[in-house]
Amino acid sequence: MSRRARALGFLVAAAIAAAVAAAIANGYGDSVVRGYGELRPVVVTNSPLPAGDQIDPEVAATELEVRRVPLRFAPSGALAAPSEAVGLVPAASIPGGSYLLAAQLHPPRSAGPLAGLGGGRRPVEIAVSGAGALGALAASPLGSKVDVAVTTEPDGPGDGRTYIAAPAVPLLGLGTGAEGVEGETATATLGLTRSQALRLIQAESFARRVTLIPRG
Question: How far apart are CA 107 and CA 97, in angstroms?
C-alpha cells in the first residue's frame, strides 16, 4: 500500500472515530436527560475568590466557567453566566471548584461617613444639646469634624466649667433626642476612640450640657 493510501486510511479512521465519539457523547447526554432531567448552566469557580475583592470582567472571563448539570442537582441560586457576577463582591472567600451562588455575592459598599474612620475610632451615640445650630450650616454637617464641649454643673455660685472633651471628631449622624425637641436635645453619632467614648458617656451623667461646635 502506498504512503498516500495509508494517510488517506488514517484520515478516514480518525473521522469515523470522531463521529463515534460524538454519537456516544450525544447518547450519554440524552441518557442523562432521560435519567436525571433537564440540564441547566451553572457557574463554577476555577480558583478561589477572596472575600471583598470585586469581580471584574477579566476575573469573570478567566476564573469562572459554565458547566451544565441536571436541574435537580443544581444548587438554588447558582449563577447561570459569569457576566452575572461582574461588579459584585464575595461576602466570604469562595473555594475553587465551587458553584457560584447569588447569596455569596453583594454589591460593593459605597464610601460614606463610616468609611475610613481609622485610628481605633468607632461609631458611638451621645446625647447633645444645641445641635440645631448645625442645621444653619450651608452644607450638610454629616461627615464634618466637630469639637465636643462639656459644661459641668457648678460646685457653687457660677456657671460651671466648660472644656473640650473630644476635639475634631467625625460627625456621622444626627437625630432628634428623647425629648423630641429639635434643636434643643438631639442624639449625635460620633466617630470616637475608646477613651473619648468613655469620657463622654460619663459626662452624660454629670454634665449640664454636651455641645457640638462646628470646626471652621
Answer: 23
- How confident is the prediction along the chain (216 residues), in pLDDT tens digits per residue? 565 555 555 555 555 555 555 555 555 555 555 566 788 899 999 999 988 888 988 899 999 999 998 888 888 888 989 988 888 888 888 999 999 988 888 887 654 555 556 778 888 888 888 666 666 665 667 778 889 999 988 877 777 789 999 999 988 887 755 443 344 577 888 999 999 999 998 888 888 889 988 876
CATH of domain 35-109: 3.90.1210.10
Residues of the chain with CATH 3.90.1210.10: 35-109
Rounded to whole angstroms, the Cα distance separating 116 from 175 reads 22
Residue with cell 449622624: 173
Give pTM, 2 decimals: 0.45
CA distance 24 to 30: 10
Residues in the chain: 216
Query: Facing residues of 146 across strands?
Result: 169, 214
